[in-house]
Amino acid sequence: MTPTSSRNLQLLSEIASGRPITQRELAKRGGLALGLVHALMHRLIDLGYVQAVAVTPTRLLYRITEQGLQEHARLAQAHLEESLATYRALRVSFARALAPIVTASQPRVVLCGTGDAAEIASLILQRHGVAPSAIVDDGPGCPPWFLGHRVHRLSDLSTLTVDWAVVAAPSSAARFLEALARTMIPKERILVVPKPVDMSARGFEPAESALATVELAA
Questions:
Q1: Which CATH number fits domain 98-213: 1.10.1760.20, 3.50.50.60, 3.30.2130.30, 3.40.50.720?
Q2: Would the N or C end of the chain have less CB density within 10 A of its end CB?
Q3: Angle, CA of 38, 42 and 45, to the nearest 5°
């Protein structure tokens, strides 16, 4: 989906909820600039997707039209299909990256991260009979529990009995790699998903995947 289509879906979803809403409220909920919302709403009105209703001389509320409901359904379907395609591609990418763990004998894995990437990595591992031994994260908003495990702080890494590490936190991979460099985990057993980062500066090299022995999820 284009950025404009994504914003249109976001705005139409808010309006379709049935709650009376103003441009300022739309901007706040969507994290968009008020001027941008103003321009987008004018376009949605011109296209016949939204009606503006004056409740006072200076206050407008918005209602979605029948045509707007049809466009919302079309955009929602496109977004779902795009999301599923992205998820399938990520599963294949993760399976490739995690192949060395899947083919190892009784690996003890620490999962670094508590976001979507970590959840996908855990699902891939568990599909092949490997459950994380521990989960580590102490970033902003980090939950105390994740996937049934108590979440350890980054400073606990050296106390964990593990011999593999999966860094599944794209926005903070460097922070985890710095901490892992101070552990006894061999550098070839530290894997990064969903995509490799430049680890050469810290002496890390991505492990090669034994692709032939791993079933890749389509």
A1: 3.40.50.720
A2: C
A3: 140
